[in-house]
Amino acid sequence: MGTFHSDKGELHGITVVVDTTGDAVYIGRCWEMNDREVVLLDLDQHEDGQDGRSKEEFIRQAARVGIWKKRDRLVLPLSEVASVTPLGQVSTD
Amino acid sequence: MPYDPRLVQPMREELTTLGFTELLTPDDVDAFMSEKGGTALIVVNSVCGCAAGMARPGVRLALQQGPRPDRLATVFAGQDVDAVARTRGYFAEMPPSSPSMALFQDGELVHFVPRHLIEGRTAEQVASDLASAFDHHCAPAA
């Protein structure tokens, strides 16, 4: 039993890694993904090299323990998205 | 705005019927955590069906397997706000997420299951991961 929103796409409610075509990567709860955009809630973000960490290092750390929310909401056009991956499927090795 | 308590009650009972003690206030949390000996599991419950829908059945299945924690407690995110905040203070190095599960041994956090390792998984998968932690940290039932 719980609350569901089945009209938001199969990733609705799932914590995902949204890698972009640029330096930024975002990790947050997917609210909706459609043929135009990805909407994330309660997300963290990282720029490649920020604080001496690559995108990959940031993602691995998040896969181990989760994320510290830095933003409430982000709408990202699919044209800027390189990949969307559930965080739970990311290897921590 | 919190969900209607009538909606949440069955989700609470999914755990309380398994023997979980509800921690409704910060004092409840402190009292539970003041007992340092043995093992204790705290489940941060949630209404979210996308993740919590499998969390609670996963916990139930895990507890039906081999070793299990000595003590079980739960707080409800978005409902018992102060109790949840106090609970998270006991594993403050972990980013907040709900549902989530924290296993303590002799007062120390030894295993943590964040939301992203629950969502999208089956109850059996959640149970398997949790049972592995129980095997490692909890004493076999006498």
Q: What do these coordinates show?
A:
The complex is a heterodimer of chains A (93) and B (142). Chain A is built from one helix and five strands. Chain A has 93 residues and is mostly beta strands. The radius of gyration of chain A is 13 Å and the shape is globular. Chain A has a five-stranded antiparallel β-sheet with strand order 4-3-2-1-5. A five-stranded mixed β-sheet of chain B has the order 1-3-2-4-5, with helices on both faces. In chain B, strand 2 (39-45), helix 3 (52-63) and strand 3 form a beta-alpha-beta unit. Helix content of chain B is 39%, strand content 19%. The longest helix of chain B has 15 residues, at 123-137. At the A-B interface, loops of A face helix 1 of B.
Question: What is this structure's SSE topology?
Answer:
The complex is a heterodimer of chains A (93) and B (142).
Chain A: E1 15-20, E2 24-33, E3 37-47, H1 55-65, E4 71-77, E5 81-86
Antiparallel strand pairs in A: 1-2, 1-5, 2-3, 3-4
Chain B: H1 5-16, E1 21-22, H2 26-34, E2 39-45, H3 52-63, E3 71-76, H4 81-88, E4 100-105, E5 108-113, H5 123-137
Parallel strand pairs in B: 1-3, 2-3
Antiparallel strand pairs in B: 2-4, 4-5
